[in-house]
Amino acid sequence: MATTENKVWQIAGHLILSLISVLCLLPFVLLIISSFTDEQTILQNGYSFFPEKLSLTAYSYLWNQSAEIARAYGVTVFVTVAGTVASLAMTSMLAYPLSRRDIPLRNPLAFFVFFTLLFNGGLVPTYLIYTQYLDIKNTIWALIIPGLLMNGFNVLLMRTFFITSIPVPVLESAHIDGASEFKTFRSIVLPLSLPILATIGLLQTITYWNDWFNGLVYLTEPKLFSIQNILNRILTDIQFLSNGSLGSNASQGFAALPSSTVRMAIAVIGVLPILVAYPFFQKYFVKGITIGAVKG
Amino acid sequence: MAHTIRDTDTNTIARSARTAASQARKTRFKRYLPLFLMMLPGLLYLLLNNYLPMFGLVIAFKNINFAQGIFGSDWVGMANFEYLFKTSDAYIITRNTLLYNGAFIILNLVVAVAIAILLNEIRSKLMARFYQSIVLLPYLISMVIVSYLVFSMLSVETGFMNKTLLPMLGLGDISWYSESRFWPYILTLVNVWKGVGFLCVVYLAAIIGIDHEYYEAATLDGASKWQQIRSITLPLISPVITMMTLLAIGRIFYSDFGLFFQVPMDAGALHSTTNVIDTYVYRGLMQLGDIGMSSAAGLYQSVVGFMLVILSNYIVRTINKDNALF
User: Does the ipTM exceed 0.85?
Assistant: First the structure.
Protein backbone atom coordinates (compact mmCIF):
# COMPACT_ATOMS: atom_id res chain seq x y z
CA MET A 1 0.00 0.00 0.00
CA ALA A 2 2.80 2.36 0.96
CA THR A 3 4.45 1.81 -2.39
CA THR A 4 1.35 2.67 -4.42
CA GLU A 5 0.92 5.78 -2.32
CA ASN A 6 4.54 6.69 -2.99
CA LYS A 7 4.09 6.14 -6.70
CA VAL A 8 1.05 8.41 -6.77
CA TRP A 9 3.01 11.12 -4.94
CA GLN A 10 5.94 10.80 -7.32
CA ILE A 11 3.76 11.02 -10.42
CA ALA A 12 1.62 13.85 -9.08
CA GLY A 13 4.73 15.70 -7.88
CA HIS A 14 6.45 15.48 -11.25
CA LEU A 15 3.27 16.50 -13.04
CA ILE A 16 2.61 19.57 -10.91
CA LEU A 17 6.24 20.66 -10.83
CA SER A 18 6.60 20.23 -14.59
CA LEU A 19 3.51 22.33 -15.09
CA ILE A 20 4.86 25.06 -12.80
CA SER A 21 8.23 24.95 -14.55
CA VAL A 22 6.52 25.37 -17.91
CA LEU A 23 4.57 28.35 -16.57
CA CYS A 24 7.83 29.88 -15.35
CA LEU A 25 9.56 29.36 -18.69
CA LEU A 26 6.82 30.11 -21.23
CA PRO A 27 7.09 33.92 -21.06
CA PHE A 28 10.79 33.67 -21.86
CA VAL A 29 10.07 31.33 -24.76
CA LEU A 30 7.49 33.77 -26.13
CA LEU A 31 10.00 36.61 -25.81
CA ILE A 32 12.71 34.74 -27.70
CA ILE A 33 10.39 33.45 -30.43
CA SER A 34 8.90 36.92 -30.88
CA SER A 35 12.31 38.42 -31.47
CA PHE A 36 12.81 35.95 -34.33
CA THR A 37 9.38 36.52 -35.88
CA ASP A 38 8.65 38.48 -39.04
CA GLU A 39 7.36 41.98 -38.24
CA GLN A 40 4.32 41.71 -40.54
CA THR A 41 3.38 38.37 -39.04
CA ILE A 42 3.37 39.94 -35.58
CA LEU A 43 1.27 42.89 -36.71
CA GLN A 44 -1.26 40.42 -38.12
CA ASN A 45 -1.24 37.54 -35.66
CA GLY A 46 0.34 39.06 -32.59
CA TYR A 47 3.17 37.56 -30.52
CA SER A 48 2.80 33.84 -30.89
CA PHE A 49 4.53 30.62 -29.87
CA PHE A 50 4.11 29.22 -33.38
CA PRO A 51 4.65 32.13 -35.79
CA GLU A 52 3.93 31.60 -39.48
CA LYS A 53 7.08 33.31 -40.63
CA LEU A 54 10.42 33.64 -38.92
CA SER A 55 12.85 36.42 -39.61
CA LEU A 56 16.16 37.85 -38.47
CA THR A 57 15.23 41.43 -39.36
CA ALA A 58 15.19 42.60 -35.76
CA TYR A 59 18.70 41.34 -35.15
CA SER A 60 20.04 42.69 -38.42
CA TYR A 61 18.49 46.05 -37.54
CA LEU A 62 20.24 45.93 -34.17
CA TRP A 63 23.44 44.89 -35.90
CA ASN A 64 23.25 48.05 -37.98
CA GLN A 65 22.69 50.03 -34.80
CA SER A 66 25.39 48.03 -33.08
CA ALA A 67 27.44 51.05 -32.06
CA GLU A 68 24.69 52.27 -29.74
CA ILE A 69 23.81 48.85 -28.43
CA ALA A 70 27.48 48.09 -27.90
CA ARG A 71 27.97 51.29 -25.95
CA ALA A 72 25.02 50.52 -23.71
CA TYR A 73 26.43 47.04 -23.23
CA GLY A 74 29.79 48.55 -22.41
CA VAL A 75 28.17 50.78 -19.81
CA THR A 76 26.38 47.80 -18.25
CA VAL A 77 29.55 45.70 -18.13
CA PHE A 78 31.67 48.54 -16.74
CA VAL A 79 29.13 49.44 -14.09
CA THR A 80 28.67 45.82 -13.10
CA VAL A 81 32.39 45.04 -12.80
CA ALA A 82 33.46 48.33 -11.18
CA GLY A 83 30.44 48.37 -8.88
CA THR A 84 30.88 44.79 -7.72
CA VAL A 85 34.62 45.13 -7.08
CA ALA A 86 34.21 48.41 -5.19
CA SER A 87 31.28 46.99 -3.28
CA LEU A 88 33.20 43.89 -2.18
CA ALA A 89 36.19 45.98 -1.13
CA MET A 90 34.12 48.43 0.92
CA THR A 91 31.88 45.78 2.45
CA SER A 92 34.73 43.53 3.58
CA MET A 93 36.85 46.44 4.83
CA LEU A 94 33.98 47.62 6.99
CA ALA A 95 32.88 44.16 8.10
CA TYR A 96 36.30 42.89 9.18
CA PRO A 97 37.12 45.51 11.85
CA LEU A 98 33.55 45.20 13.13
CA SER A 99 34.13 41.47 13.55
CA ARG A 100 37.15 42.05 15.79
CA ARG A 101 36.29 41.62 19.44
CA ASP A 102 39.06 43.95 20.60
CA ILE A 103 38.29 47.04 18.56
CA PRO A 104 37.17 50.17 20.46
CA LEU A 105 33.66 51.50 19.75
CA ARG A 106 32.67 48.15 18.31
CA ASN A 107 29.03 48.25 19.37
CA PRO A 108 28.24 51.87 18.48
CA LEU A 109 29.77 51.33 15.04
CA ALA A 110 27.83 48.12 14.48
CA PHE A 111 24.67 49.96 15.43
CA PHE A 112 25.56 52.73 12.99
CA VAL A 113 25.57 50.09 10.25
CA PHE A 114 22.53 48.24 11.53
CA PHE A 115 20.29 51.27 11.90
CA THR A 116 20.39 51.83 8.14
CA LEU A 117 18.39 48.60 7.77
CA LEU A 118 15.58 49.92 9.92
CA PHE A 119 15.14 53.47 8.78
CA ASN A 120 15.77 55.33 5.59
CA GLY A 121 15.15 58.74 4.14
CA GLY A 122 13.43 57.52 1.02
CA LEU A 123 13.61 58.81 -2.52
CA VAL A 124 13.06 62.55 -2.20
CA PRO A 125 15.88 63.52 0.19
CA THR A 126 18.19 60.96 -1.38
CA TYR A 127 17.55 62.42 -4.80
CA LEU A 128 18.02 65.99 -3.61
CA ILE A 129 21.27 65.19 -1.84
CA TYR A 130 22.75 63.29 -4.77
CA THR A 131 21.74 65.88 -7.34
CA GLN A 132 22.09 69.13 -5.39
CA TYR A 133 25.02 68.50 -3.14
CA LEU A 134 26.95 65.80 -4.97
CA ASP A 135 26.19 66.70 -8.59
CA ILE A 136 25.82 63.11 -9.66
CA LYS A 137 23.21 63.72 -12.35
CA ASN A 138 24.29 62.54 -15.80
CA THR A 139 27.56 61.02 -14.69
CA ILE A 140 28.53 57.36 -14.81
CA TRP A 141 28.72 57.42 -10.99
CA ALA A 142 24.95 57.77 -10.92
CA LEU A 143 24.72 54.14 -12.05
CA ILE A 144 27.22 52.90 -9.47
CA ILE A 145 26.92 54.86 -6.23
CA PRO A 146 23.35 55.71 -5.13
CA GLY A 147 21.79 52.92 -3.11
CA LEU A 148 23.71 50.05 -4.66
CA LEU A 149 27.35 50.40 -3.70
CA MET A 150 27.12 48.92 -0.24
CA ASN A 151 24.35 47.95 2.11
CA GLY A 152 24.27 47.31 5.81
CA PHE A 153 22.76 43.88 5.37
CA ASN A 154 25.75 42.57 3.40
CA VAL A 155 28.13 44.14 5.91
CA LEU A 156 26.45 42.32 8.79
CA LEU A 157 26.31 39.08 6.78
CA MET A 158 30.03 39.26 6.12
CA ARG A 159 30.78 40.25 9.70
CA THR A 160 28.96 37.15 10.94
CA PHE A 161 31.04 35.04 8.56
CA PHE A 162 34.29 36.60 9.80
CA ILE A 163 33.31 36.07 13.43
CA THR A 164 32.37 32.43 12.97
CA SER A 165 34.95 31.30 10.40
CA ILE A 166 38.20 33.06 11.18
CA PRO A 167 39.94 31.69 14.26
CA VAL A 168 41.09 34.44 16.63
CA PRO A 169 44.42 32.70 17.43
CA VAL A 170 45.39 32.97 13.76
CA LEU A 171 44.87 36.72 13.86
CA GLU A 172 46.72 36.99 17.17
CA SER A 173 49.73 35.08 15.93
CA ALA A 174 49.83 37.23 12.82
CA HIS A 175 49.89 40.28 15.06
CA ILE A 176 52.68 38.81 17.21
CA ASP A 177 54.66 38.01 14.09
CA GLY A 178 54.50 41.71 13.28
CA ALA A 179 52.11 41.60 10.35
CA SER A 180 50.31 44.91 9.80
CA GLU A 181 46.53 45.00 9.96
CA PHE A 182 46.30 45.53 6.21
CA LYS A 183 48.58 42.59 5.56
CA THR A 184 46.62 40.34 7.92
CA PHE A 185 43.42 41.36 6.20
CA ARG A 186 44.76 40.81 2.71
CA SER A 187 46.70 37.63 3.13
CA ILE A 188 44.82 35.84 5.91
CA VAL A 189 41.27 37.12 6.26
CA LEU A 190 40.30 37.48 2.62
CA PRO A 191 41.69 34.11 1.44
CA LEU A 192 39.78 32.41 4.26
CA SER A 193 36.57 34.19 3.24
CA LEU A 194 36.22 33.23 -0.41
CA PRO A 195 32.78 31.61 0.04
CA ILE A 196 31.14 34.74 1.44
CA LEU A 197 33.01 36.99 -1.01
CA ALA A 198 31.75 34.84 -3.89
CA THR A 199 28.18 34.84 -2.57
CA ILE A 200 27.95 38.59 -2.01
CA GLY A 201 29.87 39.27 -5.21
CA LEU A 202 27.33 37.22 -7.15
CA LEU A 203 24.37 39.01 -5.60
CA GLN A 204 25.97 42.38 -6.31
CA THR A 205 26.74 41.41 -9.91
CA ILE A 206 23.10 40.52 -10.50
CA THR A 207 21.95 43.71 -8.76
CA TYR A 208 24.14 45.92 -10.94
CA TRP A 209 23.33 44.06 -14.14
CA ASN A 210 19.60 44.37 -13.52
CA ASP A 211 19.46 47.90 -12.20
CA TRP A 212 17.43 50.42 -14.17
CA PHE A 213 16.24 52.60 -11.29
CA ASN A 214 19.33 54.77 -10.91
CA GLY A 215 19.38 55.44 -14.65
CA LEU A 216 15.69 56.34 -14.59
CA VAL A 217 16.16 58.79 -11.76
CA TYR A 218 19.59 60.30 -12.34
CA LEU A 219 20.20 60.10 -16.10
CA THR A 220 18.69 62.09 -18.94
CA GLU A 221 21.70 61.75 -21.23
CA PRO A 222 21.18 58.67 -23.48
CA LYS A 223 24.93 58.29 -24.01
CA LEU A 224 25.24 56.98 -20.45
CA PHE A 225 22.29 54.57 -20.64
CA SER A 226 22.90 50.97 -19.71
CA ILE A 227 21.08 48.17 -21.53
CA GLN A 228 18.37 48.19 -18.86
CA ASN A 229 17.86 51.96 -19.26
CA ILE A 230 17.46 51.60 -23.01
CA LEU A 231 14.96 48.79 -22.52
CA ASN A 232 13.15 50.89 -19.97
CA ARG A 233 12.99 53.81 -22.35
CA ILE A 234 11.77 51.97 -25.46
CA LEU A 235 9.13 50.05 -23.54
CA THR A 236 6.94 53.15 -23.49
CA ASP A 237 8.65 55.12 -26.24
CA ILE A 238 9.64 52.89 -29.14
CA GLN A 239 10.41 55.96 -31.23
CA PHE A 240 13.33 56.56 -28.92
CA LEU A 241 15.05 53.98 -31.15
CA SER A 242 14.41 55.76 -34.40
CA ASN A 243 14.48 59.42 -33.49
CA GLY A 244 18.22 59.70 -33.45
CA SER A 245 18.90 59.57 -29.73
CA LEU A 246 19.87 55.98 -30.19
CA GLY A 247 19.59 55.23 -33.92
CA SER A 248 22.29 56.91 -35.94
CA ASN A 249 20.24 56.99 -39.13
CA ALA A 250 17.47 59.38 -38.13
CA SER A 251 16.36 59.60 -41.75
CA GLN A 252 15.16 56.02 -41.55
CA GLY A 253 11.57 56.73 -40.59
CA PHE A 254 9.51 55.20 -37.82
CA ALA A 255 7.66 53.06 -40.37
CA ALA A 256 10.85 51.31 -41.38
CA LEU A 257 11.63 50.32 -37.82
CA PRO A 258 10.42 46.78 -37.09
CA SER A 259 9.46 48.01 -33.63
CA SER A 260 7.49 45.03 -32.29
CA THR A 261 10.35 42.65 -32.90
CA VAL A 262 13.26 44.98 -32.20
CA ARG A 263 12.16 45.72 -28.66
CA MET A 264 11.92 41.98 -28.04
CA ALA A 265 15.36 41.45 -29.57
CA ILE A 266 16.90 44.06 -27.28
CA ALA A 267 15.21 42.43 -24.30
CA VAL A 268 16.68 39.08 -25.39
CA ILE A 269 20.14 40.62 -25.60
CA GLY A 270 19.68 42.14 -22.16
CA VAL A 271 18.59 38.94 -20.47
CA LEU A 272 20.68 36.41 -22.40
CA PRO A 273 23.89 36.67 -20.34
CA ILE A 274 21.96 35.88 -17.18
CA LEU A 275 20.11 32.96 -18.75
CA VAL A 276 23.32 31.52 -20.16
CA ALA A 277 25.33 31.92 -16.97
CA TYR A 278 22.52 30.78 -14.67
CA PRO A 279 23.17 27.01 -14.81
CA PHE A 280 26.75 27.65 -13.69
CA PHE A 281 26.03 29.95 -10.78
CA GLN A 282 22.62 28.71 -9.63
CA LYS A 283 24.14 26.54 -6.90
CA TYR A 284 25.88 29.54 -5.33
CA PHE A 285 22.82 31.70 -5.83
CA VAL A 286 20.65 29.24 -3.90
CA LYS A 287 23.29 29.15 -1.17
CA GLY A 288 23.39 32.94 -1.03
CA ILE A 289 19.62 33.13 -0.56
CA THR A 290 19.72 30.56 2.23
CA ILE A 291 22.52 32.32 4.11
CA GLY A 292 20.79 35.69 3.78
CA ALA A 293 17.42 34.41 4.94
CA VAL A 294 18.67 32.32 7.83
CA LYS A 295 20.78 34.95 9.52
CA GLY A 296 20.80 38.63 8.86
CA MET B 1 54.22 64.95 58.26
CA ALA B 2 53.52 61.40 57.43
CA HIS B 3 50.29 62.63 56.09
CA THR B 4 51.86 64.91 53.48
CA ILE B 5 54.21 62.22 52.35
CA ARG B 6 51.35 59.89 51.73
CA ASP B 7 49.55 62.65 49.83
CA THR B 8 52.50 63.33 47.58
CA ASP B 9 52.83 59.63 47.04
CA THR B 10 49.28 59.24 45.92
CA ASN B 11 49.64 62.29 43.72
CA THR B 12 52.69 60.90 42.02
CA ILE B 13 51.09 57.54 41.64
CA ALA B 14 47.96 59.11 40.21
CA ARG B 15 50.00 61.21 37.84
CA SER B 16 52.13 58.38 36.64
CA ALA B 17 49.00 56.26 36.30
CA ARG B 18 47.47 58.98 34.21
CA THR B 19 50.51 59.20 31.94
CA ALA B 20 50.54 55.45 31.68
CA ALA B 21 46.88 55.48 30.76
CA SER B 22 47.34 58.14 28.12
CA GLN B 23 50.41 56.23 26.90
CA ALA B 24 48.29 53.12 26.71
CA ARG B 25 45.58 55.04 24.91
CA LYS B 26 48.15 56.28 22.44
CA THR B 27 49.49 52.84 21.66
CA ARG B 28 45.96 51.50 21.54
CA PHE B 29 45.06 54.28 19.12
CA LYS B 30 48.13 53.52 17.03
CA ARG B 31 47.32 49.84 17.09
CA TYR B 32 43.75 50.31 15.85
CA LEU B 33 44.28 53.23 13.50
CA PRO B 34 44.71 50.97 10.43
CA LEU B 35 41.43 49.21 11.23
CA PHE B 36 39.61 52.52 11.47
CA LEU B 37 41.16 53.62 8.19
CA MET B 38 39.83 50.44 6.61
CA MET B 39 36.32 51.22 7.81
CA LEU B 40 36.43 54.81 6.64
CA PRO B 41 35.15 54.40 3.03
CA GLY B 42 32.22 52.24 4.14
CA LEU B 43 31.27 54.50 7.03
CA LEU B 44 31.48 57.59 4.84
CA TYR B 45 29.27 55.93 2.26
CA LEU B 46 26.62 55.10 4.86
CA LEU B 47 26.80 58.66 6.13
CA LEU B 48 26.27 60.01 2.63
CA ASN B 49 23.86 57.48 1.21
CA ASN B 50 21.82 56.68 4.32
CA TYR B 51 22.22 59.20 7.12
CA LEU B 52 22.20 62.48 5.18
CA PRO B 53 18.89 61.56 3.50
CA MET B 54 17.46 60.74 6.94
CA PHE B 55 18.18 64.30 8.04
CA GLY B 56 17.00 65.43 4.62
CA LEU B 57 13.54 64.20 5.60
CA VAL B 58 13.02 67.63 7.18
CA ILE B 59 12.27 68.76 3.63
CA ALA B 60 8.74 67.48 4.23
CA PHE B 61 8.23 70.42 6.62
CA LYS B 62 9.65 72.94 4.18
CA ASN B 63 8.86 74.65 0.96
CA ILE B 64 11.69 73.50 -1.27
CA ASN B 65 13.68 76.24 -2.88
CA PHE B 66 16.44 74.84 -5.06
CA ALA B 67 18.60 77.93 -4.71
CA GLN B 68 18.62 77.51 -0.92
CA GLY B 69 18.94 73.72 -0.86
CA ILE B 70 17.31 71.25 1.50
CA PHE B 71 18.56 72.70 4.73
CA GLY B 72 18.19 76.36 3.75
CA SER B 73 14.61 76.32 2.46
CA ASP B 74 11.82 78.00 4.42
CA TRP B 75 9.81 76.11 7.01
CA VAL B 76 6.11 75.62 6.27
CA GLY B 77 5.18 73.43 9.23
CA MET B 78 2.61 70.74 8.51
CA ALA B 79 1.28 72.37 5.33
CA ASN B 80 2.53 69.59 3.04
CA PHE B 81 0.87 66.96 5.22
CA GLU B 82 -2.41 68.82 5.45
CA TYR B 83 -2.39 69.07 1.69
CA LEU B 84 -1.56 65.39 1.21
CA PHE B 85 -4.14 64.03 3.64
CA LYS B 86 -6.86 66.32 2.32
CA THR B 87 -6.73 64.62 -1.09
CA SER B 88 -8.03 61.11 -1.64
CA ASP B 89 -4.51 60.17 -2.81
CA ALA B 90 -3.25 59.43 0.69
CA TYR B 91 -6.06 56.96 1.26
CA ILE B 92 -5.75 55.30 -2.15
CA ILE B 93 -2.00 54.79 -2.02
CA THR B 94 -2.12 53.50 1.56
CA ARG B 95 -4.98 51.11 0.72
CA ASN B 96 -3.28 49.86 -2.44
CA THR B 97 0.07 49.36 -0.71
CA LEU B 98 -1.44 47.43 2.21
CA LEU B 99 -3.88 45.31 0.18
CA TYR B 100 -1.32 44.33 -2.46
CA ASN B 101 1.33 43.46 0.10
CA GLY B 102 -1.22 41.54 2.17
CA ALA B 103 -2.24 39.48 -0.86
CA PHE B 104 1.40 38.94 -1.86
CA ILE B 105 2.38 37.74 1.60
CA ILE B 106 -0.42 35.16 1.85
CA LEU B 107 -0.25 33.89 -1.70
CA ASN B 108 3.54 33.71 -1.84
CA LEU B 109 3.56 31.80 1.43
CA VAL B 110 1.02 29.19 0.35
CA VAL B 111 2.48 28.63 -3.10
CA ALA B 112 6.08 28.57 -1.89
CA VAL B 113 5.41 26.08 0.90
CA ALA B 114 3.42 23.85 -1.46
CA ILE B 115 6.19 23.82 -4.06
CA ALA B 116 8.86 23.28 -1.41
CA ILE B 117 7.00 20.26 -0.03
CA LEU B 118 6.61 18.78 -3.51
CA LEU B 119 10.29 19.38 -4.27
CA ASN B 120 11.20 17.55 -1.08
CA GLU B 121 8.98 14.59 -2.00
CA ILE B 122 10.54 14.13 -5.44
CA ARG B 123 12.87 11.16 -5.12
CA SER B 124 15.18 12.13 -7.96
CA LYS B 125 17.35 14.82 -6.42
CA LEU B 126 18.60 15.84 -9.84
CA MET B 127 15.06 16.56 -11.04
CA ALA B 128 14.24 18.36 -7.80
CA ARG B 129 17.21 20.65 -8.28
CA PHE B 130 16.19 21.18 -11.90
CA TYR B 131 12.64 22.21 -10.97
CA GLN B 132 13.94 24.48 -8.25
CA SER B 133 16.28 26.25 -10.64
CA ILE B 134 13.46 26.89 -13.08
CA VAL B 135 11.13 28.25 -10.40
CA LEU B 136 13.91 30.52 -9.17
CA LEU B 137 14.72 31.83 -12.65
CA PRO B 138 12.15 34.70 -12.73
CA TYR B 139 13.58 35.98 -9.44
CA LEU B 140 16.81 36.71 -11.29
CA ILE B 141 15.35 38.92 -13.99
CA SER B 142 15.01 42.70 -13.86
CA MET B 143 11.54 44.20 -13.68
CA VAL B 144 12.12 45.86 -17.03
CA ILE B 145 12.48 42.45 -18.66
CA VAL B 146 9.39 41.30 -16.77
CA SER B 147 7.51 44.27 -18.25
CA TYR B 148 8.46 43.05 -21.72
CA LEU B 149 7.23 39.56 -20.91
CA VAL B 150 3.94 40.97 -19.65
CA PHE B 151 3.71 43.28 -22.66
CA SER B 152 4.08 40.36 -25.07
CA MET B 153 1.08 38.80 -23.35
CA LEU B 154 -1.09 41.89 -22.90
CA SER B 155 -0.25 44.27 -25.73
CA VAL B 156 -3.57 45.45 -27.14
CA GLU B 157 -2.69 45.11 -30.83
CA THR B 158 -0.15 42.31 -30.78
CA GLY B 159 -0.41 40.56 -27.41
CA PHE B 160 -0.77 36.82 -27.01
CA MET B 161 -3.95 37.27 -24.96
CA ASN B 162 -5.82 39.44 -27.41
CA LYS B 163 -4.57 37.75 -30.56
CA THR B 164 -4.53 34.10 -29.58
CA LEU B 165 -6.00 33.17 -26.22
CA LEU B 166 -9.14 35.34 -26.06
CA PRO B 167 -10.22 34.56 -29.68
CA MET B 168 -9.73 30.84 -28.91
CA LEU B 169 -12.19 31.25 -26.05
CA GLY B 170 -14.51 33.25 -28.27
CA LEU B 171 -13.96 36.47 -26.32
CA GLY B 172 -13.35 39.96 -27.65
CA ASP B 173 -10.29 42.16 -27.23
CA ILE B 174 -9.52 43.75 -23.88
CA SER B 175 -7.51 46.95 -23.74
CA TRP B 176 -5.40 45.76 -20.85
CA TYR B 177 -3.41 48.93 -20.37
CA SER B 178 -6.47 51.12 -19.85
CA GLU B 179 -8.76 48.88 -17.80
CA SER B 180 -7.73 49.24 -14.19
CA ARG B 181 -9.97 46.50 -12.81
CA PHE B 182 -7.76 43.65 -14.13
CA TRP B 183 -4.55 44.93 -12.61
CA PRO B 184 -4.92 43.70 -9.04
CA TYR B 185 -4.97 40.17 -10.48
CA ILE B 186 -2.25 40.78 -13.05
CA LEU B 187 0.15 42.35 -10.56
CA THR B 188 -0.48 39.67 -7.96
CA LEU B 189 0.15 36.97 -10.54
CA VAL B 190 3.35 38.65 -11.73
CA ASN B 191 4.52 39.05 -8.15
CA VAL B 192 4.00 35.38 -7.36
CA TRP B 193 5.59 34.33 -10.65
CA LYS B 194 8.67 36.44 -9.95
CA GLY B 195 9.03 36.10 -6.21
CA VAL B 196 7.92 32.62 -5.21
CA GLY B 197 11.23 30.97 -6.14
CA PHE B 198 13.03 32.90 -3.44
CA LEU B 199 10.73 31.81 -0.61
CA CYS B 200 10.72 28.31 -2.04
CA VAL B 201 14.49 28.07 -1.56
CA VAL B 202 14.18 29.24 2.03
CA TYR B 203 11.39 26.80 2.91
CA LEU B 204 13.02 23.88 1.13
CA ALA B 205 16.18 24.49 3.14
CA ALA B 206 14.07 24.38 6.30
CA ILE B 207 12.33 21.15 5.25
CA ILE B 208 15.61 19.45 4.35
CA GLY B 209 16.84 20.31 7.82
CA ILE B 210 14.11 18.20 9.47
CA ASP B 211 15.40 15.03 11.12
CA HIS B 212 14.55 12.00 8.97
CA GLU B 213 13.77 9.81 11.95
CA TYR B 214 10.44 11.56 12.40
CA TYR B 215 9.32 10.42 8.97
CA GLU B 216 10.69 6.90 9.44
CA ALA B 217 8.81 6.51 12.69
CA ALA B 218 5.64 7.92 11.14
CA THR B 219 5.90 5.54 8.18
CA LEU B 220 6.34 2.58 10.54
CA ASP B 221 3.20 3.67 12.34
CA GLY B 222 1.39 3.66 9.02
CA ALA B 223 0.96 7.40 8.62
CA SER B 224 0.12 8.52 5.09
CA LYS B 225 2.18 11.12 3.27
CA TRP B 226 -0.57 13.64 3.76
CA GLN B 227 -0.62 13.03 7.51
CA GLN B 228 3.17 13.31 7.64
CA ILE B 229 3.07 16.68 5.90
CA ARG B 230 0.38 17.96 8.20
CA SER B 231 1.79 16.63 11.46
CA ILE B 232 5.55 16.73 10.88
CA THR B 233 6.62 18.99 8.04
CA LEU B 234 4.33 21.94 8.60
CA PRO B 235 4.71 22.18 12.38
CA LEU B 236 8.48 21.84 12.14
CA ILE B 237 8.92 24.58 9.54
CA SER B 238 6.39 26.88 11.18
CA PRO B 239 9.09 28.90 13.00
CA VAL B 240 10.66 29.73 9.63
CA ILE B 241 7.24 30.54 8.17
CA THR B 242 6.45 32.81 11.10
CA MET B 243 9.76 34.58 10.83
CA MET B 244 9.63 35.14 7.07
CA THR B 245 6.02 36.32 7.27
CA LEU B 246 6.65 38.73 10.12
CA LEU B 247 9.65 40.16 8.32
CA ALA B 248 7.44 40.67 5.26
CA ILE B 249 4.78 42.34 7.41
CA GLY B 250 7.48 44.65 8.74
CA ARG B 251 8.04 45.75 5.14
CA ILE B 252 4.34 46.04 4.30
CA PHE B 253 4.52 49.81 3.85
CA TYR B 254 7.14 49.48 1.13
CA SER B 255 6.43 48.07 -2.27
CA ASP B 256 8.38 46.84 -5.24
CA PHE B 257 8.60 50.05 -7.27
CA GLY B 258 9.39 48.23 -10.51
CA LEU B 259 6.34 46.00 -10.26
CA PHE B 260 3.96 48.91 -9.86
CA PHE B 261 5.72 51.34 -12.18
CA GLN B 262 7.26 49.30 -15.00
CA VAL B 263 4.83 46.43 -15.41
CA PRO B 264 1.72 48.68 -15.94
CA MET B 265 4.01 50.81 -18.20
CA ASP B 266 3.26 53.91 -16.09
CA ALA B 267 -0.21 54.05 -17.71
CA GLY B 268 -2.27 56.91 -16.26
CA ALA B 269 -5.58 55.08 -16.71
CA LEU B 270 -4.39 52.38 -14.32
CA HIS B 271 -3.40 54.63 -11.43
CA SER B 272 -6.47 53.93 -9.31
CA THR B 273 -5.38 50.31 -8.88
CA THR B 274 -1.62 50.52 -9.47
CA ASN B 275 -0.58 53.60 -7.53
CA VAL B 276 1.27 52.75 -4.31
CA ILE B 277 3.27 54.96 -1.95
CA ASP B 278 6.54 54.37 -3.79
CA THR B 279 5.13 55.23 -7.22
CA TYR B 280 3.31 58.23 -5.78
CA VAL B 281 6.52 59.61 -4.30
CA TYR B 282 8.37 59.00 -7.55
CA ARG B 283 5.75 60.70 -9.71
CA GLY B 284 5.47 63.68 -7.38
CA LEU B 285 9.22 64.17 -7.52
CA MET B 286 10.10 63.32 -11.13
CA GLN B 287 6.98 63.90 -13.20
CA LEU B 288 4.76 66.42 -11.42
CA GLY B 289 7.41 68.51 -9.70
CA ASP B 290 5.30 68.47 -6.54
CA ILE B 291 8.13 67.95 -4.11
CA GLY B 292 6.16 69.08 -1.05
CA MET B 293 3.53 66.37 -1.44
CA SER B 294 6.07 63.82 -2.51
CA SER B 295 8.33 64.42 0.48
CA ALA B 296 5.35 64.37 2.86
CA ALA B 297 4.31 60.96 1.51
CA GLY B 298 7.93 59.82 1.76
CA LEU B 299 8.21 60.82 5.42
CA TYR B 300 4.89 59.15 6.14
CA GLN B 301 6.26 55.95 4.61
CA SER B 302 9.60 56.16 6.43
CA VAL B 303 8.05 56.74 9.84
CA VAL B 304 5.20 54.22 9.66
CA GLY B 305 7.55 51.75 7.95
CA PHE B 306 10.05 52.16 10.79
CA MET B 307 7.39 51.54 13.44
CA LEU B 308 6.19 48.42 11.65
CA VAL B 309 9.72 47.02 11.40
CA ILE B 310 10.25 47.60 15.12
CA LEU B 311 6.89 46.08 15.97
CA SER B 312 7.29 42.98 13.82
CA ASN B 313 10.78 42.43 15.14
CA TYR B 314 9.50 42.74 18.68
CA ILE B 315 6.97 40.00 17.94
CA VAL B 316 9.60 37.76 16.31
CA ARG B 317 11.76 38.31 19.38
CA THR B 318 9.08 37.21 21.80
CA ILE B 319 8.54 34.05 19.72
CA ASN B 320 12.15 33.13 19.09
CA LYS B 321 15.07 35.29 20.09
CA ASP B 322 17.49 33.76 17.59
CA ASN B 323 15.39 34.72 14.60
CA ALA B 324 15.00 38.35 15.55
CA LEU B 325 16.82 40.97 13.55
CA PHE B 326 17.83 42.68 16.79
Answer: yes
